[in-house]
Amino acid sequence: MTKTRLTFLTAGLALSAVAIAHAHATFETDSAPAETTFKAVLQIPHGCDGRPTTEVQVTLPEGFVFAKPQPKPGWELEIIKGDYEKTYDDHGTNVSSGPVEIRWKGGNLPDEHYDTFAVRGKLSGFAKETVLAFPTTQLCGSEGSVVWDQLPAEGQSAHDLERPAPTVTVTLASGGNVHGSHGGKHADQIAGGPVNAGDLEISAGAIKAMLPGAKVGSGGFVVKNAGSSDDRLLAVEAQAAGRVELHEMTMENDVMKMRKLDGVVIPAGGTVELTSGSLHLMFMEVKKPFAESETVPVTLIFEKAGRVEYVLPVTAASGASGVHKHN
Q: What InterPro entries does the record tag this protein with (predicted)?
């Protein structure tokens, strides 16, 4: 069975169900480096207008090859194979066809529950950073379906769409010195340079160089909110570290104390500086100490602006200013 393979899509597939909850079908991890094996874990958050999901269909884009889906108890697994547009190397063997669509069928996922559906494949054949769309359809018996197939136009984000397609950003190392691989949509930016996301502008990013053998690093950036309502930085992710935490340092009875924060408010019309001073990022369980002149891609997760990919340059260890809020 030969299928036409799509990487970038426009909105246009019909939606059979009349109502959709605000939660979208997304991947647990939405960025990965080229020429690596990637486990795409799709999250299905709700049914079709209140009805349970009985089938999930995922179209695999060109460049996601040698796919192997993960079986699910209670669901029948169907693998549809077809021709690739290109030929790919599989440990010395040229391969030009393989799985192009995966279907989990005959299950029952109630609307009030959520579940994940996983497929593993190789991200291969990319000469530049690419956003791969995985058009996904939820079927709810004969009573309806939800189609996730839209990609944002220029200037939009996925949060502006009613039915955004789950996507994975395939990243490339920049000059061989990208530390980590969670590069995302802005891996070609000037490291630390300004990136806009809705009403927010992120700039002046930096991470301090670490000593050999160190496992904890610190850094930050500046966020300016030009909007009329507050936003909130909820979390930061980085493949170069086991986890990233938001920390604040304060003086209590002449003793410097540091505490972990659940989030940071970015006030309307204001600017917040997260630096290596009072308010900052802590990179925990760092896999390889950050060295000066390297870069560390991160994903910033905002309450309203959504997921924002950003690249932090690693600078020489030196003093940094504290946090300031300007209203």
A: LpqE-like, Lxx211020-like, PCuAC_sf, UCP037139, YcnI-copper_dom, YcnI-like_sf
Q: Are the C-beta atoms of residues 289 and 307 closer than 8 Å to each other?
A: no
Q: Which of 31, 295, 283, 280 is nearest to 180 (CA)?
A: 295
Task: Supply the pLDDT for residue 318.
Answer: 52
The CA distance from 103 to 96, in Å, is 21
Domain 184-326 matching CATH 2.60.40.1890: the answer reads yes
Amino acid identity, residue 87? T
User: What does residue 186 show for φ and ψ, rounded to 5 degrees?
Assistant: -125, 30
Residue 109: the pLDDT is 94
Positions in the chain short of pLDDT 50: 2-22, 174-188, 319-327
pLDDT number for residue 317 = 65
Do 26-171 and 184-326 share a fold? yes
CATH number of 26-171: 2.60.40.2230
Contact present, 64 and 122 (Cβ < 8 Å): yes
What pLDDT is stored for residue 178 in this prediction? 39
- Indicate the helix (H) or strand (E) that contains 275: none
User: What are the residue ranges spanned by the domains of the chain?
Assistant: 26-171, 184-326
pLDDT of res. 316: 78
